[in-house]
UniProtKB/TrEMBL annotation:
Its main location: membrane. The chain crosses the membrane at residues 6-23, 52-70. The keyword Phosphoprotein does not apply. The lineage of its organism: Bacteria, Bacillati, Actinomycetota, Actinomycetes, Kitasatosporales. Keywords: Membrane, Transmembrane, Transmembrane helix. It is a multi-pass membrane protein. Residues 85-141 form the NfeD-like C-terminal domain. It comes from the Bacteria. SUPFAM superfamilies: NfeD domain-like (SSF141322). It is found in: Membrane. Gene3D superfamilies: Nucleic acid-binding proteins. This is NfeD family protein.
Amino acid sequence: MDIDAWVWWLIGAAGLGIGLVITAMPELGMLAAGAVAAAVVGALGGDAVFQVLVFAVVSVALIAVVRPIAARHSAQRPRLATGIEALKGRQAVVLERVDGSGGRIKLAGEVWSARSLDAELTYDVGREVDVVDIDGATAIVM
């Protein structure tokens, strides 16, 4: 049983695609695209040297062009703070007097236990405070 070269290129592209999914390395996807291009050339009757040349050119071109663009894009993307990191730096309103031993605040629409960063300071009801840290389920305020 003789299998055409273009089928081997597709098998290689599928293997590279599986590797891409397993490792999340985008370069494998670019190599898979090169293998698909070589399979097209093989299916159209191109000889083995031309198929390898197309694979190399398409793969290198994709890696040379797409990879720097993707790197720039990921470097420019702002990191979104989530969870407790998103609460740090926000303002809250004191619901029950807050001092070094405890109290209650309203932070992001929720009631939180809180304590003062400086144990000597107290914050009375209605005062706005800044959240500087979260310790477990307690907001540290100043």
